[in-house]
Amino acid sequence: MATQSPQPSEPFIAPQGAHIDLDGHPTDVLMRLEHPRVALLGGLLTPAECQALIDCARPRLARSRTVVASTGGEEINADRTSRGMFFERGETALISRIEQRIARLLHWPASHGEGLQVLHYRPGEQYHPHYDYFDPAQPGAATLLSRGGQRVATLILYLNQPALGGDTDLPQAGLHIAAHPGNALFFAYPQAHPDSATLHAGAPVLEGEKWIATKWLRERVF
Ligand SMILES: O=C(O)CCC(=O)C(=O)O
Ligand SMILES: [Fe+2]
Fold it and tell me: Does some domain include residue 1?
């Protein structure tokens, strides 16, 4: 991002137009919603980038863990049956390029984000409805917030298309987003509160498999 522009108060997608040029990478804005703050992008990743992320992640997959808000730790949880892995920020040239593109798209520095997480769901696997922010009322919140502050927005990058099922659902908005390779779903929660209406779920994959990469944006350097 340009050094001269002050950092905005929250990640956002340019509010006008159907097309964004991200340093030479054309991206389509397919849909925006004001509440919750949602946008759907087309072509944020190329087919080759989607495949490269899957290929790099596949040998490193392990059963996904969820954050335990009561302690600030992590656990394997029946609510989340996918397998996944985290890339380090800037781990490879591909990861850096994608992180720079996301920083451009969201007007949010790459330093203010967790490493890209790749998730893989097989038939029957899902992620039950949840919020991505950390509940400040939980005893483990201080630990989770001590590095990077609160999560403020999520970008889900779809790497393939399951044969059946596997939508991302936002039930408070009545939204069902179908996974389509190269597309990305953005949602922001400037308040870490259910009023953000950002409850969301990865619906069960019914046939085939689903691959996504998730980027969680933080308030501060993570
Ligand atoms: O699988 C999905 O579509 C949702 C994933 C998700 O909620 C997350 O990674 O935080
Ligand atoms: Fe989530």
Answer: no
pLDDT, mean over the chain: 94
109 within some domain: yes
The protein residue with its alpha carbon nearest to ligand 1, atom 7, reads 201
Neighbours of ion ligand 2 (CB under 5 A): 132
Residue to probe by mutation, ligand 1, list 189, 212, 216, 217, most atoms within 8 Å of CB: 212
Q: CATH code at 30?
A: 2.60.120.620
Structure tokens at 196: 């953000």
Taking the CA of 177 as reference, the closest ligand is 1
Helix (H, G, I), strand (E, B) or coil at 153: strand
- Mean pLDDT computed over 116-128: 96
Instruction: For ligand 1, atom 5, name the residue with the nearest CA.
Output: 202
Q: How many CA atoms lie within 13 A of 34 on its CB side?
A: 2
Q: Is residue 104 part of a domain?
A: yes
The ipTM (two decimal places) reads: 0.99
Distance CA 43, CA 40 (A): 10
Compute the average pLDDT of residues 207-216: 98
The CA distances from residue 196 to 121, 135, 148, 185, in Å, are 27, 13, 20, 16
- Taking the CA of residue 214 as reference, the ligand 1 atom at the shortest distance is 9
**Helix residue spans in the chain (DSSP H):** 47-57, 93-106, 141-146
